[in-house]
């Protein structure tokens, strides 16, 4: 009995505002897949890589606000500041990895998170992953985010 190879989806590139990869990241969207909401399945970019470490929501004075949403807001603002130091802007983001201590807490605040995300980064949505962890190094932290940006050459 012959074995049929698995059907592999074709890959299409959905350009953002810039059509050529050397001018900025491009969203990768396999043909026929539903469009994701608030993230991308994949990104392609050519340029200088700018990465953050795990960023939590403390302010420059080291104060960590109480609550998931205020911490997420400050963590995203911190990421914007860090990547700016490397010459990157929000539209250069190609990946965000979120580490949360409570997945239900994240899911309960999706609308507020979407609002603050758009306030800080606009409507550019890179590839994202969300991981629940037992705890973060800073005990009071509810969320930690890593970011990768690619600045066009």
Descriptive tags:
153 residues; 3 helices; three-stranded antiparallel sheet; four-stranded mixed sheet; alpha+beta; 27% strand; single chain
Uncertain segments are 10-19
Largest sheet: 4 strands, mixed
**Can you give the helix content as a percent range?**
10-25%
Helix-strand pattern: EEEEHEHHEE
Strand order of the largest sheet: 4-7-5-6
Assembly classification: single chain
Q: How many angstroms separate the termini? A: 52 Å
Percent strand equals: 25-35%
Shape: globular
The pLDDT mean sits at: 89
- SS-based class: alpha+beta
The tally of beta strands, per DSSP, is: 7
- Structure annotation, total helices: 3
Estimated radius of gyration: 17 Å
Report on this structure.
The chain is 24% helix and 27% strand. The chain contains 3 helices and 7 strands, in the order ββββαβααββ. The protein has helices at 68-85, 103-108, 110-121, and strands at 11-14, 26-30, 42-44, 47-51, 93-100, 127-132, 143-152. The strands form 2 sheets. The chain has a 4-stranded mixed beta sheet with strand order 4-7-5-6. α1 packs parallel to α3. The longest helix is centred in the middle third of the chain and has 18 residues, at 68-85. It starts with 10 loop residues before the first strand and ends with a strand. The model is unreliable at 10-19 (pLDDT under 50).
């Amino acid at each position: 009995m012959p074995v049929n190879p698995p059907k592999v989806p074709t890959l299409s590139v959905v350009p953002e505002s810039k059509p050529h990869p050397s001018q900025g990241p491009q969203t990768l969207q396999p043909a026929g897949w539903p469009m994701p909401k608030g993230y991308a399945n994949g990104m392609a970019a050519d340029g200088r890589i700018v990465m953050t470490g795990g960023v939590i929501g403390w302010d420059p004075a080291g104060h960590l606000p109480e609550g998931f949403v205020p911490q997420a807001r400050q963590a995203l603002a911190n990421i914007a500041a860090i990547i700016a130091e490397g010459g990157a802007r929000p539209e250069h983001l190609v990946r965000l990895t979120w580490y949360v201590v409570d997945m239900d807490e994240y899911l309960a605040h999706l609308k507020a998170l979407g609002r603050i995300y758009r306030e800080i980064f606009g409507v550019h949505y890179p590839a994202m992953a969300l991981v629940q962890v037992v705890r973060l190094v800073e005990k009071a932290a509810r969320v930690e985010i890593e970011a990768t940006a690619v600045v066009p050459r």
